[in-house]
């Protein structure tokens, strides 16, 4: 079976398991999504969702955020980890949005990636979830599963993203990256995983294909 055939089979399974997918991070607009995704670096979505209500009650627009003391921002987001760096990034990107983008979150990767604390994955999530523009954010779950399912070499996340974009239709990317993450959490974890009981690994996974 070719890699493309395996990808097609996996896509079908994911559609059957997750015909509808939730958005993991609570937000109300592109700005609050951007901040939530930034906070999610090395932090769980659940913890971010517990932290952002207090932050957004303080400031939920770039205009309001730049008027806040960075120390106050840092104290609120401390539970998310890396608070000194993240608080400076939040303050910095908010000022840049005001200075360069009219207070709006730009809907293109280049401008998003130029913001403090915003890497390619964060920018891709915002593109997909805030603007509906096809993107394929690759996190540790997707990177791990793409290798486990023999869809990529596992060399790095950049290579994984390129490989997955070639295998799956562009119109499916935004939904598919969420489907893979949910599947990884529920059926294909990094630890204690039994490939023979996994709905995908038992049929198409690396352990099955390379016995």
Describe the structure.
There is one protein chain. The chain has 13 helices and no strands. It is an all-alpha fold. The protein has two domains: 3-21 and 136-209, Helix-hairpin-Helix base-excision DNA repair enzymes (C-terminal) (Endonuclease Iii, domain 2, Orthogonal Bundle), CATH 1.10.1670; 30-131, Endonuclease III, domain 1. Helix 1 (3-17) packs across helix 11. The longest helix has 18 residues, at 83-100. The relative contact order is 0.13. The mean pLDDT is 95.
Look at the structure and give the CATH class of the largest domain. Answer: Mainly Alpha
Order of helical and strand elements:
HHHHHHHHHHHHH
Mean pLDDT: 95
The gross shape turns out to be elongated
| CATH topology title of the largest domain | Endonuclease III, domain 1
Please report which band the strand proportion falls in: under 5%, 5-15%, 15-25%, 25-35%, 35-45% or over 45%: under 5%
In angstroms, what separates the terminal alpha carbons?
A: 15 Å
Q: Helix content range of the residues, please? A: 55-70%
Number of strands: 0
How many helices in DSSP terms? Answer: 13
Main sheet, how many strands, which sense, barrel?
none
Number of domains: 2
Give unreliable regions as ranges.
none
* CATH hierarchy: architecture of the largest domain: Orthogonal Bundle
For CATH, the homologous superfamily of the largest domain is named as Hypothetical protein, domain 2
Structural class, from helix and strand content? Answer: mainly alpha
Rg from alpha-carbon coordinates:
18 Å
